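in:
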């Protein structure tokens, strides 16, 4: 099974492997992101709520990699979902990143009190004004993603959610695939829990790979999935990217799927909130 290193979603070409800047700050953030880019990562995922867009922008500039070769993602924090606030916050993000646009602009979660229509309109307007190329959402349930996709004038290209071997995301995967979108998996290594799984350790021995590489390859062998681990250092990122030269058997894939029964959710978000359908 040949797995492409990029995935084409509508008109977007998204790297299958990227890095997520959650919980990184200052010099540490800049160093880890710069090292990740040097190791070959081309999708860089940050957010207003992470408080590190300045450091991420510095890493991008210092990397020496052509901007057009990177796929930069940021997310609008929930408190800025009113149309004027959203557009203003995106401009502030670009100022912090020192970029003229991001490749992907996400809504960072569900706001239960604001109407969905106007928020999606403002997100689309950000693209119309050249502030972003594509739009999507993060931390939406399958039903919430379907509602947003049905209301958005601009196709949503992804839902970014926690996804790793220990959580069942069948419904979310079905929802994005039916819309021709992607699932961007953050915490794909379950915050290190993959390294303690006997199943992943055993499979790793069979393939002469680490448990983390096995988990990443499991994600890569699923349609419409990209993975965004949090970087540690250049060596680890390079190791995690070394997953395109081997293939897990159907039996190994099934053994990993069986781990979903653990239902290990590490990054709790309000995915069950009911978003108002009012304008």
């Amino acid at each position: 099974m040949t797995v492409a290193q990029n995935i084409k979603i509508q008109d977007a070409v998204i790297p299958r492997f990227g890095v997520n800047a959650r919980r990184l700050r200052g010099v540490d953030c800049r160093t880890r992101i710069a090292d990740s880019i040097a190791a070959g990562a081309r999708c860089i995922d940050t957010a207003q709520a992470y408080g590190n867009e300045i450091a991420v922008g510095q890493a991008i500039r210092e990397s020496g990699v052509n901007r057009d070769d990177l796929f930069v993602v940021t997310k609008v924090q929930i408190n800025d979902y009113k149309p004027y606030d959203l557009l203003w916050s995106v401009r502030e993000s670009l100022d912090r990143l020192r970029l003229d646009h991001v490749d992907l602009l996400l809504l960072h979660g569900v706001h239960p009190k604001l109407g969905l229509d106007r928020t999606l309109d403002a997100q689309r307007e950000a693209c119309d004004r050249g502030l972003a190329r594509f739009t999507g959402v993060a931390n939406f349930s399958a039903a919430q993603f379907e509602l947003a996709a049905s209301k958005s004038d601009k196709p949503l290209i992804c839902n970014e959610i926690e996804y790793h071997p220990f959580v069942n995301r069948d419904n979310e995967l079905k929802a994005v695939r039916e819309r021709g979108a992607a699932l961007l998996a953050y915490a794909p290594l379950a915050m290190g829990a993959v390294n303690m799984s006997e199943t992943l350790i055993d499979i790793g021995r069979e393939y002469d790979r680490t448990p983390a590489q096995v988990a990443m390859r499991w994600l890569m062998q699923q349609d419409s999935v990209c993975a965004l681990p949090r970087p540690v250092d250049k060596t680890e990122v390079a190791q995690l990217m070394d997953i395109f030269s081997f293939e897990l058997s159907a039996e190994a894939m099934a053994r990993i799927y069986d781990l979903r029964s653990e239902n290990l959710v590490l990054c709790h978000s309000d995915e069950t909130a009911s978003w108002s359908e009012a304008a």
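note: Residues 83-97 form the longest helix (15 residues).
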